[in-house]
Design goal:
alpha/beta, D-Maltodextrin-Binding Protein, domain 2, 9-stranded mixed β-sheet, two-stranded antiparallel sheet, 9 helices, 38% helix, globular
């Protein structure tokens, strides 16, 4: 009897150690505030959430979603207060904040991306501002974008004055609508969705040529990588697999078909 109890106790301890080493019970992931159609929106819907929830089910963990201004998300991840932040394009200086899923060439592995997205400019319909893929034409005022967005560096390198706007996505569009910026630079699917609704509908339009197109990732904290390296890499692997699943393909069709 004692031997049986001892064996049971050892088994329980072993299971607990395995869980601690390989599978935490939950992950806390941070995203920016507001609605980012079709990727993640208030109310717990969006393609990023479909994807990450499938990852959680595969790995047997619970995901706790929190929303902060994007710069705070990155800082919370750097400090180990959240386990990860999404969706993040690659910037070298963000490596101070957390880790990307890296390939052998030392660059983020696009196979482990959450999605591919672009940035476009959005302007008032009577504005003659344009972008030819390399430079601005008739740029006379600042360009707004959300605080901390990766497009800021490119805008500045192209000669634009940039107004980084805190708060919800729509605040960047309000800067244009009320004459405080000549255009706003925004993630394309998000921007298209915003200008399809009042008060922007019929007043703003997209400049057709994209500013840039690139993959976006779930970044993970260095604390998680240190404590649970196998699990962290399992999360990124599961993202790659889940993105190709029939469930995710159906969700894409539902969100992206006009």
């Amino acid at each position: 009897m004692k031997r049986a109890l001892l064996s049971l106790l050892i088994a329980i301890i072993s299971i607990g150690q395995a869980c601690a080493q390989g599978r935490p019970h939950s992950l806390t992931l941070c995203s920016g505030p507001g609605d980012f159609y079709p990727w993640h929106m208030t109310g717990g819907i969006g393609l990023n959430l479909v994807l990450l929830n499938r990852v959680a089910a595969k790995l047997g963990v619970k995901i706790i979603y929190v929303s902060y201004p994007w710069k705070r998300c990155l800082l919370e991840m750097k400090n180990g207060q959240v386990d990860g932040a999404f969706a993040s394009s690659f910037k070298t200086d963000r490596l101070e904040m957390g880790a990307y899923p890296m390939a052998d060439d030392g660059k983020p592995n696009p196979d482990m991306r959450l999605m591919i997205e672009s940035y476009h400019l959005y302007k008032l319909k009577d504005s003659n501002l344009s972008w030819d893929g390399k430079q601005f034409i008739h740029l006379t005022g600042p360009i707004s974008t959300s605080l901390g967005y990766s497009i800021v560096d490119q805008l500045k390198e192209s000669g634009a004055e940039v107004e980084e706007v805190p708060g919800k996505t729509q605040a960047s569009f309000d800067m244009v609508l009320f004459g405080h910026a000549q255009a706003t630079a925004m993630v394309t699917q998000v921007g298209d969705w915003v200008i399809s609704k009042p008060p922007y509908l019929g007043k703003m339009e997209k400049i057709p040529t994209a500013l840039v197109q690139k993959p976006y990732f779930l970044m993970l904290s260095y604390q998680l990588l240190k404590d649970q390296p196998d699990f962290a890499h399992a999360v990124w692997d599961a993202i790659s697999q889940a993105r190709e699943s029939a469930e995710y393909k159906q969700a894409e069709k539902s969100f992206l078909t006009p």
